[in-house]
Amino acid sequence: MVRIALLFPQKGFFEAAFETFAEHNQFQHDFETVTEEYVLEEVVTPGSQFDPEVIGTYDVVISRGITAELFRRQFQQPPLVEIPVAGNDLVRSMEQLRRQVGDKLIAIVGAHNMLYGAEELAEIVGMRVRCYERHSDSDWASAVDEALDDGCEALLGGVETCAYAQRRGLPCALLRTGKEALWQAYTEAKKMVQVQMIEQRKSLRLRTIFDYTYEGILEIGVDGSLMSFNHTACSTLGLCPSDEGKSAAACIPAGPFQELLLSARTCENTLVPYGPLKLAVSKSRLENKGCVWGYIITFQDVTRLQQMEKSIRKQLHAHGYEAKHTFTDILGGSPQLRRVIALAKQYAGTDLDVLITGPSGTGKELFAQSIHNQSDRRNQPFVAINCAALHENLLESELFGYVEGAFTGASKGGKTGLFEQAHGGTIFLDEVAEISTALQCKLLRVLQEREIMRLGDNRIIPIDIRVIAATNKNLFQYVKEGRFREDLYYRLDVLRVQLPSLNERSGDIPILAQHFIDAYAAHYQPGAGAMQLTEDACALLEQIHWHGNIRQLKNICLRTVVTCRQRHIGARALAEVLGDAGVGTAPDASASLPEPSGGTATTPPAADSEAQRIRHALERCGYRREAAASLLGISRSTLWKKMKALQINEK
User: Are 265 and 283 a contacting pair, CB within 8 Å?
Assistant: First the structure.
């Protein structure tokens, strides 16, 4: 709420003041940036008796004449808006007095701004006036006496002046303020508050930045005085708020830092000793139109910087466990891909464990990160580990952590395992089929009980994690061969996402290839312009058997960008890049087909060739291509292409 004080020695002096103010509040469009409510209050202070406690509660003061002059002499805050004596107010008051006294000599008594132009106006309207200027709150009597001595027969003035004139028997009238002048004063008062609030907020923002920055900041005058400084400067240099305005020579110990402050030279990131500290100091001039009026010195404690860097590195390591990708990063629009994405999104809405299967290079971690970022755990850690990349003992210590002295070479203080670091979030176990049988037993307990025990410890630590596992192996076949625990298999295989190979979604190949080429061209050939695959090049890519799937395609695109110089890449240029990659047989679509969760094998028995497997699937499905394709784990269009290539006829 914005409080405005209407200050005058007599209550109700300003006619229609509150009515005009209410009208003015209806037109706030000029004050949109200040949303506070405006209120007007009348403050009566006889003479020059201003109460600082009362005055200090207002945001702006409106007054007139000698009262305004006296207030200005005594206070700098709150700001004052002085009501102008408009020409129409002056003429109106003179005309009112002339109707009472006729064509007599009229004295006008008041402050300088009330009298300015009065004689010229009187001459225009055909009246005789003489002006008497007041300079203090007690000279009204002498002004009236002087007017009487000069032969004045009537008087215009303020409250006290008119009261004394009446006691002297002199006809008088108050010099009134009309609605026009009040309206102008209200407008100026609100604008003043508006500017004041904007400046206060700006000052507060700057002061907050000034005080809470890690750098120490000093403002030094050209005379060497400490104009201002922030909290960091206080704590580092041993200053106190009362030192503001004092000489830097008296507050800063003698030495290289004091010499730099008091000199006229500037510097940037210069190491300067200050007692036991080493400061990285920068100094620049404050100047305007060639006139230097001070210096800004910023500095940082180098020792503290080193400590901060160490702390930040720890935080970055701790916060490095985050998923960067979402489903929007998965490119392609083939039906096979859309079905898998829809299923993965549906799984993301649950908190159940997920098993992602599919050939190598199909983007299993991309799906794992997307599921995490779509889940309720999105703001928690995403910890990923490749189980095939570490030796059994090292993998166990990484997953479960260890206490100090657990084994030879164990770090002092022990180590937090990845399961603990994933607490509240998701852990992604890539290549889970490669975990040893012994470690599988411990992993089973984690999945069952959601608790772990560090190596060398006897304390159980509960954890809240979601497990997403991935493999390119046939886990069910591993179970049958005794290479993977059956109970762990069914613990992992709660929800399954089977990713299609790149050839099963061949329609996405041109989209992916162009995306990779655009990305690599921007990085390796910046400014050279876009590289575009032609239609025949895209057709060639769709004919290749991508044994390495998307990973292989990315490598081919990278090789293309690095070796090709033309902007439009045709089939011939692409074939040169492909080399042996463009030659090969169709991948075995059923070789990596996982068994269903129920444990009953539905894939055809081992066959001597891909043609035999396809014929067997067709026979089992009554030569219904859609069912046979589903049984083989490939799309209907892929099955049709294989049948055509292998000359398999429908019966």
Answer: yes
- What CATH class does 331-498 carry? alpha beta
Q: How confident is the model at residue 496 (pLDDT cuts 50, 70, 90)?
A: very high
Q: What is the pLDDT of residue 651?
A: 60
- The tokens describing 217, both together, are 């900041």
Is 220 in a helix, a strand, or coil?
A: strand
Considering only the top CATH level, what class is 87-176? alpha beta
Could you tell me the strand order of the sheet in which 129-133 lies?
Answer: 129-133, 106-110, 154-157, 172-174
Query: Can you say whether the dihedral through the CA atoms of 526, 527, 532, 537 is positive or negative?
Result: negative
Continuous segment of H or E residues that includes residue 156:
strand 154-157
Q: How many residues does the chain have?
A: 651
| Most trustworthy range by pLDDT among 304-308, 321-325, 344-348 | 344-348
Range in 26-30, 174-178, 391-395 the model is least confident about: 26-30
Residues 6+ apart with CB under 8 A from 59: 2, 3, 4, 78, 193, 196
Identify whether the C-beta of residue 184 lies closer than 8 Å to the C-beta of residue 84: yes
pLDDT > 70? residue 394: yes
Q: Is a pLDDT exceeding 70 seen at residue 605?
A: no
The Cα-based distances of 3 to 49, 374, 411, 632 in angstroms read 20, 51, 66, 81
Does residue 434 contact residue 483 with C-beta atoms inside 8 Å? no
Measured N-to-C along each axis, helices 509-524 and 535-543 cross at an angle, to the nearest 10 degrees, of 120
Spatial CA neighbour of 131 closest among 164, 14, 139, 150:
150
Q: What DSSP designation does 500 have?
A: P
> Maximum CA pair distance of the chain?
136
DSSP assignment, residue 599? -
- In the DSSP assignment, the letter for residue 243 is G
Q: What is d(CA 209, CA 200) in angstroms, rounded to the nearest whole number?
A: 14
pTM listed for this prediction = 0.46
The second-level CATH assignment, the architecture, of 213-306 is: 2-Layer Sandwich (3.30)
What would the pLDDT profile of 436-475 be if each residue is shown by its tens digit? Answer: 988 999 999 899 999 988 888 888 888 899 999 999 999 9
Query: For 503-582, which CATH class?
Result: mainly alpha
Least confident of 109-118, 354-363, 531-540: 109-118
Between CA 461 and CA 594 the distance in angstroms is 34
Span 269-297, pLDDT tens digits: 888 999 888 898 999 998 888 888 899 99
Terminal CA-to-CA distance of the chain, rounded, Å?
88
Q: How far is the C-alpha of 341 from the C-alpha of 336, rounded, in Å?
A: 9
User: Cβ(592)–Cβ(472) under 8 Å?
Assistant: yes
Burial class (CB in 10 A: 0-12, 13-18, 19+), 91: middle
User: Could you tell me the pLDDT band of residue 606, with boundaries at 50, 70 and 90?
Assistant: very low
> ω into residue 256 within 30 of 0, thus cis?
no
d(CA 47, CA 17): 21
CATH of range 2-83+181-195; options 3.40.920.10, 3.40.50.2300, 3.30.1300.20, 1.10.287.130:
3.40.50.2300
CB atoms within 10 A of CB 566: 9
Tell me, what amino acid is at 62? I
What percent of the chain shows pLDDT beyond 90? 19
569 pLDDT above the threshold of 80: yes
